[in-house]
Amino acid sequence: MSNAELGFFAVDVSLEGKSAIVTGSSRGIGRAIAIELARQGTDVLINYNQNLQAAEEVQREIEALGRKAVVVQADVGNLAQHQKLINTARDAFGKIDILVNNAGITRIADVLEESEADYDAVMNTNLKAPHFLTQRVANYMISHDIHGCIIYTLSISDTLASDNRAAYCMSKAALEMSMKTYAGRLATHGIKVNGIEVGVTDTDLARVRIPDYEEASQKGYIFMVRPATPQDIANAAIVAMKIYDTGTLIPASGGVMTRLLNLRMMTELESNQSTP
Fold this sequence. Notes:
By secondary structure, the chain is α/β, with parallel strands linked by helices. The longest helix has 28 residues, at 116-143. Strands 3-2-1-4-5-6-7 form a seven-stranded parallel β-sheet, sandwiched between helices. The termini are far apart. Helices cover 41% and strands 13% of the residues. The protein has helices at residues 3-6, 28-39, 52-64, 82-93, 116-143, 166-186, 210-218, 230-242; strands at residues 19-22, 43-48, 69-73, 98-101, 149-155, 192-198, 249-252. The chain has a single domain (13-205, 228-258), classed as Rossmann fold, CATH 3.40.50.720.
């Protein structure tokens, strides 16, 4: 089979001339992924919900790299707005090769006090939206014989529970299974589906949590090289697109998920001091 027939399962995957939809790409991780895709030769649909100015800044950066970019306002949590993303990308670029399910929100509340409204908002945006947008884009790819790639921005919170972000953790855990389910179903159509296991990252959504992780790392409860930048996650997204596997997670947590027991304070005990 030729590289064109193998698509994202080719030995040497090129993103040159591809086109992508990146949800939630006006800022943070989505912005970094959109711009990195452009650096790699991809045209990008920039999706935003509220901040048009930020989305237009991303558009200008992408166009400065010599790629096409279109901006679309859509609340991905509203499934009725999904077709607008597909139609706009198709009309602007002629095809859709890549979908990056990145848009996400969180609500902070003690699990004993979490409201139904907050729970529904998080689940609609983080789980229901990417699950059904993937369904639509996958069916588009199949009907046009496009051997494309679908990427999910996942999280270490699909494994590490936070009792003040229950809905967020639950949404990411279920979303990982959505990714794996689609990977199995779409492999026979030559469509690759992978996820990125994102750790604590310097974004508007997660910045407030950085001091907690740094303190835990300093005390030896976890290992973390440093908090991630959005570019770190963008680099992982490119790996997720080019790697041979499907249905797998690309780690991007700076070692947080590495199983280590660093009892550093134990070295201060007299009984643990080496003798000359």
